[in-house]
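pasting for the record
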Amino acid sequence: MNKYTINIEPTSNPAIVKFETNQFLTRHESFEFGNIEEAQKSPLAQQLFHLPFVKTVFIAQNFIAIEKYNIIEWADVQEEVSEQLLDFLNNDGVILKTEDNTTSTSKKVPVTVYAETTPNPSVMRFVANKKLVIAPTEFKNIDATANAPIARELFNFPFVKEIFIDENYISINKYDIANWDEIAMELREFITKYIQDGKDIVLKETLKTPAEADQGSEQTNPSVSTENLDPVSKQVIDILEEYIKPAVASDGGNIMFDSYNEETKTVKVVLQGACSGCPSSTATLKNGIETMMRDMLAGKVEYVEAVNG
């Protein structure tokens, strides 16, 4: 079984800190507990309420957020809290009880999904108000969906061509036989109900191990190892991660480093999701990404080529 790791993240509210985990804590629900009585359903939250400064505990898919009273500062206690959480999780502590007769006054966060267009007219993004996956995944056909039940069911719609899932959204590439005006509502309602029913998005065993997560933080293509990469390739990856990938993700796509050719000064990238096959992706690649690479890596990169994922 993979070990839990925790990353401490501040929030816009100085009283609240998030303890992000590398694995899902709950698969489909989020819970808020205001005191130890409300937390009867969660032994983890109950343990946290034994700390005198804990005011509210919020448990979501891959993080625990804690609101504190003003008697202490987070800088003084957050490492200790993180260690306590790791000890609990890695010793098979119960996060949430599942018995049917367990009662709780916890607040269940409702599921909402909205649809938005992307620069690719064939792709629409369906955005949920909760985290769906930890790592981005693309599905070209139903054969690739053995570990992704939601993708397998979506391929039952005859107009679904390709699927890309990342963070809190699902990008769907359709065949031309259907117009979005005719199918967007049907897909949105299906995805909303699927999540509300507590069905698996991806199977737990497909989540990244801590080592794989570390590798993924260095570069975006899991098939490319960073160990033996040259310095320019590593710089390219850093630029993709920091400057380009967030903008691409906001349009329902993903960009991954593929290779760098020192002789031709060419970078190859893989486009996924809405970016794959997008009519405007070539212009974006040439006018945006290639220009940025030339400016930031002058004399080292002259061309950027894309390969659809």
